[in-house]
Amino acid sequence: MSSRGLTTALTLYRSGTLTLSKAAARAGLSEGEFVSALRRRGITVGDEESFGPDFASHDGDRPARAD
Length: 67
Hints:
Blueprint: H1 3-14, H2 20-27, H3 31-40
């Protein structure tokens, strides 16, 4: 995994351009590893209930979407 690839994937995920699974693949990580990378950087993971109890959010925040 290159740092540049991860940074690009994080940016594209955060902007809503890529889904979680596509961003994880672009970064060369599993979805779980990508979610961990997002959290380490303070990026909220959207629709966390679909990931199961291991990925549940405790604060209930949702990312904002812009047109």
